[in-house]
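Why do we bother with holo predictions? Because pocket geometry can differ from the apo form. Keep that in mind while you read this record for adenosine-5'-triphosphate.
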Amino acid sequence: MIRILQKRFALSRQGAVDLIKGCLACVVQDISFMLPVGLLYFLVIDMMNGGVNGQRTAFYGIGIVICLAVIFIAAWFQYNATYLATYVESGVRRVTLAEKLRKIPLSFFGKKDLADLTNSIMGDCATLETAFSHYVPALAGSIISTTFISLCLFAYDWRMALAAVWVLPVAFAITLFSARIQEYFNRKSVTANVALEKGVQECIETLQDLKANNAEKRYLKGLYKKIDDVEKRHIITELGTALFVVSATLILKFGIATVALTGSVLLIRGEIDIPLFFMFLLVASRLYAPLEGALQNLAAVISTRTNINRMNEILDHPVQGGSSSLTNKGYDIVFDHVGFAYNMGETVLEDVSFTAKQGEVTALVGPSGGGKTTVSRLAARFWDVSKGKITVGGMDISEIDPEALLSLYSIVFQDVTLFNNTIMENIRIGRKDATDEEVLVAAQMANCEEFAGKLPDGYNSMIGENGCELSGGERQRISIARAFLKNAPVILLDEATASLDVENETLIQSALSRLIKDKTVLVIAHRMRTVSGADKVVVLSGGKVAEQGTPGILMEKGEIYPHMVKLQMLSQKWSI
Ligand SMILES: Nc1ncnc2c1ncn2[C@@H]1O[C@H](COP(=O)(O)OP(=O)(O)OP(=O)(O)O)[C@@H](O)[C@H]1O
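The structure, written out:
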């Protein structure tokens, strides 16, 4: 039961247990509201038998106190079991999702975009939080309590009970019939929402280019269409819900009418007495209340299925596992007949074999789209290979836990990701337990001193979202400082000096020379100048190793490499 609930509602074990408690709490609360009805029933009998004497007054006094106490305790129990437990579960759910996303292979993110994932973690979690605190236990509780009370009614008089409960299956039938339709509407609504969020995010990210190309108007037109679409979808969903919920609620209202009608007939025939008739009327007036309330929020309950499916897609995705103990001997990286495709059937790398030796710089060069970035990503197990294997110091990286593996790597990407924090803390990402002194040494080695010194708070200056207050070169120097700080035995560089000016480039290159001593360095080089000092060059073209060797040998015997060197020499002569 707990496992089914966990799967069905994307809950933790504790969350599933709390959901059961929440439903039971709602049942107890619904039933507690029937106690005053019982008291009233006795009062009517007393009144009909000549009034309330002193002894009975005490009975009603104690009865009222007990009713209030039970209602209060039931409400308190229900509050704890639904609201508080749901907020705790919501926190657990977000952490579980974040943990899962940390372990999911990057191939998953290639197919999902940021807006969608943000929507799942924030939007879906918030929707489920409200549904599980306010609606799901209330609905389940009202179904159970109504069934229970209905069965009790049958013990009194089956005809009157039938008159009271016939509306329940009809209302449920309408509800169940509507569930699929509402789910369909809701799915469309969520899709429209995600499309709009993507559009807004893209618009903000590309605002500069849109302005530069005078394309704002055209783009905004598309965005307005998405906004209209969301509005339309929401209206349709709301209308659909309103139609079914109002129908089901109306049917429930008929229940009181049929109780009154049946009761009157049976009373006239003398088959029931007035107190029983009165009791059924009282019960019928309360019986449907919890269910009516729950039906109002039916759409929210039904829509959780779409949110849960989206969440389960993340939670059920296989993670990259592996041993966390590193058994490597040395740090040679070997690509052994590696084949790879980002998408099934679209081969990107084919039979790639080369060795990047420890203590050497291996440069990956080749035409655009040749597979250089892919090779460096695979070396860090950002993706798993489709064929062959990659080893580091003889250890197959597909058998190593990615987190443990990455402890061996320092990576400098072309697109540096910075956090809205100080320069100091951005560098400390390289090694979280580094002291301020160690961070400063790394910063100096990466030549951050020059620009940090000009900022009002030096290394403690905030750098804005993704370092928007820094230049490309400054951003990259922070990234290089991280690599200095981490001081890992394997270094992956993606043309690390690409956005540095000539002066800084020279300084950085001399610092890198110190850093890479005795290390395995795999560098993606777009400029031949960077490559000339490498120990080995691997030319990747069309996803295959076209040539490999020292720069000198390739200049003599190669084809693509000398051609690229020649082209770049020509481009250096180009001027505006
Ligand atoms: N995430 C991805 N999903 C699908 N295909 C991809 C992805 N990343 C790259 N590719 C494709 O893989 C091939 C190799 O790309 P890769 O980025 O490795 O080449 P590259 O040599 O680094 O190119 P460049 O020098 O332009 O950066 C290209 O055809 C590219 O379109």
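The mean pLDDT is 84.
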